[in-house]
């Protein structure tokens, strides 16, 4: 057992960390490396304090004995959520300049576009997608965006669609006028996503490791900076599950530090971490 750090508010050992990361991995599939030892302490200290414990071992026991009450709080605390509007801008440029013109021809009969933002965090990604679609798709088309995340706290923020002004500092003036409403009075330091954008998105809690209720038919899927947390086998399984929900020729967007290289999937790399689904490849 690791020694106790006297400088910490709560007793916290390597045994505690190993117990907690094992539960996290079993539930979410996310690999937690050794260097996240301090991160787990800082993120869970608030829960330990609120529950009146002096040692993380007490929290581990409580989590084991009362999963219904505590498990969601635990997962929310240890999940990483880093995002911004129009992050990795080249993806949105590809959507606007290449993907949507293709879909406007391909889906002309039904005039329908379906998108999934998997791992949507606090909502900036799906809202950025919604703005891009509204700017480039005729108004009489039926657009729906599913936005999912494991963390219920970030989903609540996303569904509200309210952000501090500094979160939209890099967005152009035209987009700010078109899609954001500035707060007044006590809310003058915040903005809210306008209703036409919010109405396109359905936010839902989803664990990627469990069953997916969606039937598919997505034209493209954004799953960025999610695969990086999984082992090779899980990455391959997830990529193939995504393929199963895409229409033939659909697209998968992943994060800049991620790759499907050397994985057995029906995707072809187009460049810039953009992949296309080839139905008959496997």
UniProtKB/TrEMBL annotation:
Q: Which reaction does it catalyse?
A: L-glutamyl-[protein] + S-adenosyl-L-methionine = [protein]-L-glutamate 5-O-methyl ester + S-adenosyl-L-homocysteine
What general EC class does the enzyme of this chain belong to?
A: transferase
Which stretches make up the CheR-type methyltransferase domain?
5-280
> Its domain of life?
Bacteria
Q: Which organism is it from?
A: Methylomonas subterranea
Q: Which InterPro entries match?
A: Bact_Chemotaxis_MeTrfase, Chemotaxis_MeTrfase_CheR, CheR_C, CheR_MeTrfase, CheR_N, CheR_N_sf, SAM-dependent_MTases_sf
One of this protein's Pfam families, by short name?
CheR_N
Q: What does this protein do?
A: Methylation of the membrane-bound methyl-accepting chemotaxis proteins (MCP) to form gamma-glutamyl methyl ester residues in MCP.
Q: What is its EC number?
A: 2.1.1.80
Question: What is the name listed in the Swiss-Prot or TrEMBL entry for this protein?
Answer: Chemotaxis protein methyltransferase
Q: Which PANTHER family match?
A: CHEMOTAXIS PROTEIN METHYLTRANSFERASE
The alphabetical list of record keywords is: Methyltransferase, S-adenosyl-L-methionine, Transferase
Q: Which SUPFAM superfamilies match?
A: Chemotaxis receptor methyltransferase CheR, N-terminal domain (SSF47757), S-adenosyl-L-methionine-dependent methyltransferases (SSF53335)
